[in-house]
Write a structure and sequence with these properties.
nine-stranded mixed beta sheet, 405 residues, globular, five-stranded mixed beta sheet, alpha+beta
Length: 405
Amino acid sequence: MSGTHDALGANPDAEGAVTGAQGFSACGFTAGIKESGLPDLALLVSDRPATAAAVYTQNQSTAAPVHISQAHTANGSLRAVVVNSGNANCATGEQGLADAREMTQLAASLIGCEADDVFVNSTGIIGHYLPMDLLRSAIPQLAPASDGGADFARSIMTTDTFQKEAVATFEANGVSYTVGGCAKGAGMIHPDMATMLAFFTTDAPVAAGALDSCFRFAMDRSFNMVTVDGDTSTNDSSVILANGAAGGEPLTDAALEAFGAALLEVSTALARMMARDGEGATKRIAITVSGAKSWNDARDVGRTIAVSPLLKAALSKYDPNWGRILMAAGRAGVPYDLDRVRIWISDLCVFDGTATGVPEAEASEKTQGEEVFLRMDLGQGDAEATAWGCDLTEEYVRFNADYVT
């Protein structure tokens, strides 16, 4: 068979992306957890055992479902994912752990697998017990379907203003494979693992070890490069299921690289959507740091710039204050020679070891679109990384001041 492979690019407008791969079904449901009456329960199922990999929040105030899912993914295999929104099941003690376990048991009974084969997530307000009577009634009614991916993506949303879905295809050894994904997240977003909930599927055959390696690489370069407000969630989780339904031998070498490229395309598309959907945001900010000695250095500088509230506030009002870029970069813990640094706002070089004298009005015009592009070159090497964020507006403060009350 041919050894050719080709990643064809992610489609960020792919409704139902999480069931785009063969052998997956999903659904969404209104269980009554949210007072709004919006969908709040979701189920994703592989029609066969799937290899799995996951990453989780590093926040020490970890929610109950994270603990259960960490145990269930330890053997690198899953059949299903069950998610509720509107309630985080966090800071709920032993009762919260028991409720998360019961969610996996209810889902397992529905699809005919072991509870240990079910990944569980919750998202929403902290400190409230799950309404288990509602879940005991709702989960047995779930009816996953091959075209249910969009309903799944809709049901995991909390403060999101739109569904976040993306899909990519690639070819390896003469077989066409699909990678699909969806995510939720608009606030409490900052680089520290996954910074939201995200779910990925592929019909490619990928061994557990290789899947874990590819997944962590993609998460580091996509979701871990996003920030909205500098806060990390108690429930952050990201998981991928690879069921091999499209056939072929387990991917290796160039074929595995093609899979990794497609996965990175999907996760990057979703990460960019999260930055644009930041609570109260009016624009997305892309910060590329080049000329670094290592990717880690470029990452650290980019993420530090992206989270700066001073820069985010300035850009919300079209203020091209590049001094705030320098200020933020300087506390990233990466040594550099200021005389060799260059900074651009879009295509305008505003700093080249010293101020370039670009008129503020001209630079301000470059900040007025839906996405602002910033670049900082450290003048040290060839490594480069891009981080994404959003502006900080009065609406963010109003929204989060009224979140509970």
